[in-house]
Amino acid sequence: xxxxxxxxxxxxxxxxxxxxxxxxxxxxxxxxxxxxxxxxxxxxxxxxxxxxxxxxxxxxxxxxxxxxxxxxxxxxxxxxxxxxxxxxxxxxxxxxxxxxxxxxxxxxxxxxxxxxxxxxxxxxxxxxxxxxxxxxxxxxxxxxxxxxxxxxxxxxxxxxxxxxxxxxxxxxxxxxxxxxxxxxxxxxxxxxxxxxxxxxxxxxxxxxxxxxxxxxxxxxxxxxxxxxxxxxxxxxxxxxxxxxxxxx
Length: 248
Ligand code: NAP
Description:
Elements: E1 7-10, H1 16-27, E2 31-36, H2 40-51, E3 57-61, H3 67-81, E4 86-89, H4 104-132, E5 135-140, H5 143-147, H6 153-173, E6 178-185, H7 191-194, H8 198-206, H9 216-227, E7 238-241
Parallel strand pairs: 1-2, 1-4, 2-3, 4-5, 5-6, 6-7
Helix pairs in contact: 1-9, 3-4, 4-6
Bound molecules: NADP nicotinamide-adenine-dinucleotide phosphate.
């Protein structure tokens, strides 16, 4: 029970990695407020699943790219649970294409959902964390943000931006006992990758030193560490959860 008594907001938890983080946080004793943008049914299902064994959890429809949504989310979570100790900025999208074909809208949308979202929620939650002199903020970036990727200029820029944001917030808020770290997942197998050609997926696995794709639980375990007091002397860092895909 590494997160007993802690209140956490996790963005984009209706499926994939966010869902796994929500389940792991509940298992560690946290109270979980999670968000989604459009997957209402999945969110209702997840809320039921998280609360089935007496867990405290609630889903909120909230567009991570919108500041006003972040502000009302924080207000509602404070009304429901009184404080916020942990924020996981997980909501993210891709809209891949070569730069030559990338529209301004494709660029803006990916930057707004992946990067501006971190600004929105971190700023909205700041007053609460400053007052409490406590907080752990975790930004889910990507190995693509560390090393770039052809055909993903918008996504890579957003994920690299998250790393600069993470380091700056750690420097700004360390003296107030608010920590901020990033996780850079590599190839994580979710429902989405199940639909891809099995030979292609196996090819990707073969290039990874640990010879397998990651699981959402692998990322969730790193989140538990960074959210808990186990990492109380860790801030401003990027933890690569990628099976050794990158080593820097
Ligand atoms: P996913 O399965 O596509 O799930 C994305 C989640 O984000 C969904 O719950 C979705 O909710 C939510 N979301 C999307 N846009 C949103 C918005 N504007 N406001 C609020 N919520 C929004 O993605 P995933 O694979 O689990 O990835 C989660 C995070 O890990 C992302 O930041 C991604 O970039 C990062 N990551 C993933 C991998 C990987 O291999 N999977 C690797 C590196 C990094 P709705 O269903 O309601 O839209």
